[in-house]
Amino acid sequence: MDLSVVIALYNERDSLPELLERIRTVLDSPLVENTKELPLYEVIFVDDGSTDGSWDFISDQASKDSRVHGIRFRRNYGKSAALYCGFEAARGNVVITMDADLQDDPAEIPALYNMVTSGNYDLVSGWKKKRKDGLFSKTIPSRLYNATARMVTGIKLHDMNCGLKAYKGEVVKSIEVYGEMHRYIPYLAKQAGFSKIGEKPVVHSRRKYGKSKFGLSRFVNGYLDLLSLWFLARFGKRPMHIFGLFGSLMFIAGGVIAVWLIIQKLYWQTHGFPYRQVTDQPLFYLALLAIVLGMQLFLAGFLGELISRNATERNHYHISERR
Q1: Strand, coil or helix: what is 272?
Q2: 292 and 213: one domain?
Q3: Which of 95, 88, 100, 81 is nearest to 9 (CA)?
Q4: Rounded-to-10 torsion of CA 9, 10, 15, 19
Q5: Does any domain span residue 314?
Q6: How far apart are the C-alpha atoms of 279 and 283, rounded to whole Å?
Q7: Are residues 208 and 105 in contact, defined by beta-carbon separation less than 8 angstroms?
Q8: Are residues 259 and 210 in the same domain?
């Protein structure tokens, strides 16, 4: 199969008929210029526990058109879970993801498809260069978020969280999207060994129906998820390298300070100089705190190392080919 279009949705009943019609209009024409060959495609709707009748429409269309498929969750699990199940079901050599709110234009699909099939990219992310969202509610926070993401991940994308993306089929089969990690799929792909990541400016439209399902909490959650991904990528399989290092440094620093205070007190005492009891000095208790915290960090690293070495995926590597 040439192409799979995966659409994660939650309460988007009003948008679905127009969205599907526009997708059909695009995909019932050749995707590659100067050819008359029509693509073999499928459209996979993943209903993330909608309560507005979205599933009724999807089910009806799936019964009429074999190219339309639906997956329904019993409750709302989130976009990452929906994309994970959509990726698992996708059979296309190229996979396109897009949102169901009509803010992503299906007319962008041919260009994204050709950027991937040309062999230049493993993943192409849309760039909503001219956003149609509120300036303070989405535009400015989005720019700050993307600037931080570029700095941490090293991936030079202007809009990492854009829902409109194109992937090689092997990319979506090699990554695991969970929690709220859908925002960082390019980074997950990079960690899986897919380094050919590009972007394309895409048309962004105003929402026609309903309202956004993501509140301001997405920025806090996104920041925390970014730190988690960075930490797991750097130290996920070698926790001792971070916890053991800082634990050892704190333990040694605290021990040196405590011993120095004791030696200083004994020296002054034996030479008749006025002195303070070691236990009367705040620095001594800070040294003890550093010793205790250092031991805890070291033990945390040691336990993490034991867990990592006994994990079932400790030798899970992404192999590109065999001969």
Answers
A1: coil
A2: no
A3: 100
A4: 10
A5: no
A6: 9
A7: no
A8: no
Looking at per-residue pLDDT, the higher value among 97 and 267 belongs to 97
What amino acid occupies position 295?
A: M
Burial label, 271 (beta-carbon count in 10 A; 0-12, 13-18, 19+):
exposed
Q: What is the CATH number of the domain that holds 135?
A: 3.90.550.10
* Residue 320 resides in a domain: no
User: Residue 198 carries which DSSP code?
Assistant: E
- The reported pLDDT for the residue numbered 267 is 87
Domain holding 301, by residue range, is 240-309
* Domain co-membership, 134 together with 263: no
pLDDT in tens, 138-179: 667 777 877 878 887 888 888 888 899 999 999 999 998 887
Give the pairing of strands 165-168 and 94-99.
antiparallel
Structure tokens at 210: 């309903």
pTM of the model: 0.74
Sheet with 3-9, side-by-side order of all strands: 68-72, 41-47, 3-9, 94-99, 165-168, 123-127, 197-201
Q: Say how far apart CA 195 and CA 218 lie, in whole Å.
A: 27
Quote the CA–CA distance of 180 and 282 in Å, as a whole number: 44
Q: How many angstroms separate the most distant Cα atoms in the chain?
A: 101
Helix (H) or strand (E) holding 306: helix 282-309
Domain assignment present for residue 185? The answer is yes
In three-state secondary structure terms, 255 is helix
